[in-house]
Every structure is written in C-alpha cells, then in structure tokens.
Specification:
This protein is an alpha/beta fold. It has helices at about 25-50, 65-75, 85-95, 115-125, 160-170, 190-195; strands at about 5-10, 55-60, 75-80, 100-105, 130, 140-145, 175. It is globular, with a radius of gyration of 16 Å.
Length: about 210
C-alpha cells in the first residue's frame, strides 16, 4: 500500500436518548443506544482487521466507560471530539493527522477491512476518496491532506450532502474517487436490511 494511511472513527457514547435517535420510535431509547454500541464495535472490528493505525474520536469525550472498553478490546487510541458542528469536528480530525487519513462513522455496517484497504489504495493515487451512501450522504471520506472547504456550507443530515461535496471538489479541482456505494442505518426501514445481513438487532425495551 503506497504511503502510510491511518483511519479515524467518530462515534457518540451509546447513551439512551442521544444515540440513533431516529430509531427510538422503533427500538426505544435503550434499544437504539444498544444498537449504536453494537454498530460501533462492529466498525472497530473492521478497523482492527484492516491493520491500519486507528483512532477513535469520542463524543462527548474519551472518558466514557464505553470508550475505555473499546480501547481495551480493539487497541485503538482514544481522542475527544472537539466542539463545533459536524463539519468543524471533521476538519479538526483531518487537521490533527500526520498524513493521509480515512474518516468514517459507525452507521455503515458494509464497511469491512477489504473496503478500507481499497479506500487506502485509492487515496494513494488521488487527493480524496469517498464512499457515498444510497441516501445521498457519505459513510467515509479520505483525504491526502486537509481540505477545509469541504466542511463548510454543507447541508449536513440531508440527501444533498454528497452532491454538494462533489460541487466543492470540482470547484477546487480536487481529484477524487468513489470506489463503491454503501448504505447506512438511520431509519426503521434500514433495520430490515441490517437484519438480513445477520446483524443482531436489540429488542425494543422502552
């Protein structure tokens, strides 16, 4: 693999009422939090299998007991997410990197070690790499260097995120690749697809 690529995972502590809020009507606050915890650990397993140097960026901070367990079980470095909106926090993660970096969340269970390696290899020959999601966002962004313009004036949480990102990339003349389209788990309908993969979904408890 050309150049040393590292990977960062941004994750929220699995606290009822704060995690996977769109799924609370289906799973309840506790069930949604447990699903988020399971998906975060699933993502960390993929990172560990990839062998890429990995950091877990924690919200609200790295002192939460869940993150301590993740560090113990998966050997990841813990960092606390900075303040600011999603774009500001993402840019801060890239600004802290010593070299090319892949950044992902825990919402896309189809990201595995093979796909992570493919993204790293793409980043060796392009300025940026993305895994767009079927709902118009993206589940992974990789940058060879920080590009702060990609994180401002963005309609975060909408189906226009990837389209707006492509506009910025074209305007900035950034060379990028999109090796695969993936799907994420944000709505009750997504749970059906998740269950079909064999992922164990916590029962509704609230």
């Amino acid at each position: 693999m050309s150049r040393d690529v590292s990977i960062a995972l941004m994750a929220r502590a699995p606290e009822p009422g704060r995690a996977k809020t769109r799924l609370i009507p289906r799973l309840g606050a506790t069930g949604a939090a447990r699903l988020h915890a399971a998906m975060t650990r699933h993502a960390l397993s993929a990172l560990a299998q990839s062998g890429l140097p990995a950091t877990l960026w924690c919200d609200p901070d790295a002192d939460h007991s869940f993150f301590a367990a993740c560090a113990r079980d998966f050997g990841v470095e813990l960092r606390s997410q900075p303040q600011g909106d999603l774009g500001a926090r993402m840019h801060a993660v890239f600004a802290s990197a010593d070299g090319p970096l892949l950044l992902m969340g825990a919402d896309c269970p189809s990201i595995d070690a093979t796909l992570l390696h493919a993204c790293a290899e793409n980043l060796a020959r392009a300025d940026a790499v993305f895994l767009p999601t079927a709902d118009g966002g993206y589940g992974l962004i990789g940058l060879a260097r920080p590009i702060p313009e990609l994180f401002v004036d963005m309609p975060w949480g909408t189906e226009a995120v990837m389209a707006r990102t492509r506009e910025h990339l074209s305007r900035l003349r950034v060379e990028w690749t999109e090796p695969a389209q993936i799907w994420d788990v944000d709505t009750p309908e997504d749970l059906v697809r998740l269950a079909a993969t064999g992922f164990v979904i916590p029962p509704c408890e609230d």
